[in-house]
Design goal:
The chain contains six helices and nine strands; from the N terminus they run E-H-E-H-E-H-E-H-E-H-E-E-H-E-E. It is α/β, with parallel strands linked by helices. The chain has two domains: 101 residues, 3-Layer(aba) Sandwich (Rossmann fold); 95 residues, Rossmann fold. The protein binds glycinamide ribonucleotide.
Length: 201
């Protein structure tokens, strides 16, 4: 069997996507470490329950973004990570970190990029009045939510939706497409050409 892709999942909060990645039991992927910038993230408990090593690297303990990211790189080294997946990681990674893991960082965003980048994407979609939104898995480049798109899923917006009910529907799709994108990466089925990502099944 080919070597498994060694995955680091970066979290800051609840970790339902981490849970979905764990539960998907992707044969070609091994979660070797979970990194949290938030010592109180519920995601940490989820990782521990599955005996996944956790590295807590609190950004507040570092004098600058670069020092924080240098520490992440240093702490990741022993895990020999092939792929970094941001799963609700609420810190922007600078070009310094992005270059260290070029084309090996994925992010999940709760909207159909390039619409509604940044924070509170579901609320942005509701407030704007679009009838459909969704979620996006993309490679991380040096911008914010701008990298080449791997997979997207569409979610309808209902008249009686609140941010919570809409997010619930978006999460269901996130939990499906994020593990799928990782599987495709691990099996060598993704090819990046400029802004476009081609999927070969
Ligand atoms: C997810 O909905 C993800 O799309 C979003 O944070 C949530 C994390 O949920 N990410 C962003 O908004 C990034 N800009 P989780 O902690 O339950 O996986």
């Amino acid at each position: 069997m080919n070597k498994k892709t060694r995955l680091a999942v970066f979290v800051s909060g609840s970790g339902t996507n981490l849970q979905a990645i764990i539960d998907a039991k992707i044969g070609s992927v091994e979660i070797v470490v979970v990194v949290s910038n938030n010592p109180d993230a519920h995601a940490i408990e989820r990782a521990k329950k599955h005996n996944i090593p956790v590295e807590v690297i609190d950004h507040k303990q570092h004098s600058s973004r670069e020092e924080f990211e240098k520490e992440i790189i240093r702490r990741l080294e022993p895990y020999r990570v092939d792929l970094v997946a941001l799963a609700g990681f609420m810190r922007i990674l600078s070009p310094f970190f992005v270059r260290a893991y070029k084309n090996r960082i994925m992010n999940l965003h709760p909207a159909l990029l390039p619409l509604f980048p940044g924070i509170h994407a579901a609320k942005q979609a509701l407030d704007f009045g679009v009838k459909f939104t969704g979620c996006t898995v993309h490679f991380v480049d040096e911008g914010v939510d701008t990298g080449p798109i791997i997979l997207q899923a569409v979610v309808p917006i209902h008249d009686d939706d609140t941010e919570e009910t809409l997010l619930e529907r978006i999460h269901k799709e996130e939990h499906r497409i994020y593990p799928e994108a990782m599987r495709l990466f691990a099996e060598g089925k993704l090819r990046i050409e400029g802004r476009r990502v081609f999927v070969r099944e």
